[in-house]
């Protein structure tokens, strides 16, 4: 095909469009409040003539004398009116069976009701879900509100403590595309390489967008690469910014964990800890939003700001019945088990300015966010690993603490993160009914590491703060869309054409020399906790791609909708690709719709995956050692037999239905199957048992090496269910929302390179059983949510239940009486690789709110009111301490978290 499809799509895009002169009748279709209704259908009765309203609800049409117009819009009662000689305003009232929220993601035509779309879309109104909860960041809020949205809060995982990467349907964070106002959002420069589920992936930091700026979130739970390009294999998250004017809204809140079971809790001074529960993880948030009208034609500019501060948490031995007398050693002083602290602030604006006496609108949005964080790295024990301590460190209270006769040391990893985004564009109407949109969207993320209260053991104890370097990612996207609604074709046709060009740049910059150098061969290399990036890691890589696409939606009949999309892209480093999508929806009855889709997907390996290079400290079974992650093109990668990276390819299919038996109830059920070939993941860890690697590892002074590779083919399949009941009567309201996701992932094939085939040890190094277990645990197999809310007068009370199903991983622990899977170092009496099971858990939240006045509302309550925690390690049916979780503590990252009960209060002001 070699680019022929790209040329065909480009030819269609520039195809000349003819218009014919007509006598025009002008008017506007509006709601009872006077707001224009977008994409309302206006037809002349008894003819094929018709049009649709623009973004302001305006229309123009040529009609016969004394003609009758039929005016309709989804969710509104249809009206028939006689034309007049002057402009006319047509008011539509809501249908008795209003079909719910309108969505714009997944279509380039008119907005449709969320239950009339051919694929599932969740619509989450932020103002409704962010106040009655102790959760204060966007990612956590969405995790509780959407059935197949998943994220795991990380701890002791280097930069993963500060970036909460989210996924859809158990896939990778970089397989979900994030849009803001329909425009592509840049990803973070961060690569998840340690202690995380999405290891080997980048993603988008949703928490870098001020929560106060968001009106609603649309989550498209279906493959959309053919519509939006790379990264949309699992789906699309579209954040719609606020357009409010003349109202100042301020939301503020406080929350803190109260966990009586936490029997080891550190005080402010090193070496001091106290028994029993205490409030920690104190969080404070403040958000504000205000908009100003611009001009005389519905223009506006809306400003938002957020400030957020969250303290550390410390979680150690929660099970008081477990102790060393059981033969299960427990490190009761590990400070790395807990959340790091974070302080962040951000600003955002959203603007539209119609050009007077034209159909053209200038728009722009963007903002910035800064984040500073502080998290403990893995705790070191001087008596166990003296080479980790410099000479003369004894007695230095800044660097160590002594508890129960043991000397411990806790390095701190600090990060400073900057996010910047800016979008500007012009949109309008060409001729009578061609909608066009030209835009440029820019985004940049910079991630800088520092080591604090630490040292380079080979240098000495005099220096305790290091600049470790970091990385940045830049993305710029130019996009042009052209669309037209043709109501005279069947029951309506919408055509869209588009061109897109995207440029990306990724950089790694080195830290100061002392952060990575070795000055004494008998001591550990580099700053403890996080050795700095080295000059050999530095990279400045760029790439670009161009794309053309065609998108069509046809209402073949009043009941049958058909959608088709074709997209062709050409990468300057990975060549040409084309993707396709077919989606359909059929109304079996007026309130029951069957829907389904099938699509192909494509994702080129990110610049981060191609170029990332770093040396980090790993901990397994109490052993501390350095690991080198080498870029795909490096000599060490080739020596290990790892082939060049290639693109991921996918096939996504879904089938389901939407049903609205009465106006108060909406039910949607959707099944899905996603096949992905050549998924890019982080390999296992290779050591000197591969002869070709031994001299290189020795030269680098590291014990192991890891690489990015197209290691696996996977299949995800599952089911999403949403049941929504909302009833309002007198001054009361009842809302019941049930969400459910069943998800299963199969590893269909491990793509072992020829150079490594034939040896079990080599195969395990390439993608071990342990790594396979982690990718299977990317999402719980069952996630169920039930929200019950009741309002009466000025009061609202509610309870929210979330159930997360059982997951199993392979981790390092101490052998007890149970047969281990793998014994390490041929010593069955020390650490072993065993299966750890985290059983399913139900978390219960409660809240209440009271409207003090028309302008002030107070919220209060508790998340996880019953103080439920993950299992403290269950190994083959018996309770056992996970001596080293992947995050360096007693638990691995599970969706419910391990911090326990969280109390909160919030205030909402509107002026």
How far is the first residue's CA from the last residue's CA? 60 Å
Largest sheet: 22 strands, antiparallel, barrel
- Low-confidence runs of at least 5 consecutive residues: 12-22, 263-276, 317-333, 814-830, 874-883
Strand content: over 45%
The total count of helices amounts to 9
Structural class: mainly beta
Tally of DSSP β-strands: 51
Helix content: under 10%
CATH class of the largest domain: Mainly Beta
- Report the CATH architecture of the largest domain: Beta Barrel
Overall body shape: globular
**Whole-number count of domains:** 2
The averaged pLDDT comes out at 82
CATH level 4 superfamily of the largest domain: TonB-dependent receptor, beta-barrel domain
Please give a structural write-up.
The longest helix has 10 residues, at 4-13. Helix content is 6%, strand content 48%. It has a 22-stranded antiparallel beta barrel. Strands 10-15-16-13-14 form a five-stranded mixed β-sheet. It has a four-stranded antiparallel β-sheet with strand order 3-2-5-6, with no helix packed on it. It contains nine helices and 51 strands. The chain folds into two domains: 4-91, Carboxypeptidase-like, regulatory domain (Immunoglobulin-like, Sandwich), CATH 2.60.40; 102-475 and 486-910, Maltoporin, Chain A (Beta Barrel). The protein is globular and about 95 Å long. It is mainly beta. The termini are far apart. Mean pLDDT is 82; it is low at 12-22, 263-276, 317-333, 814-830 and 874-883.
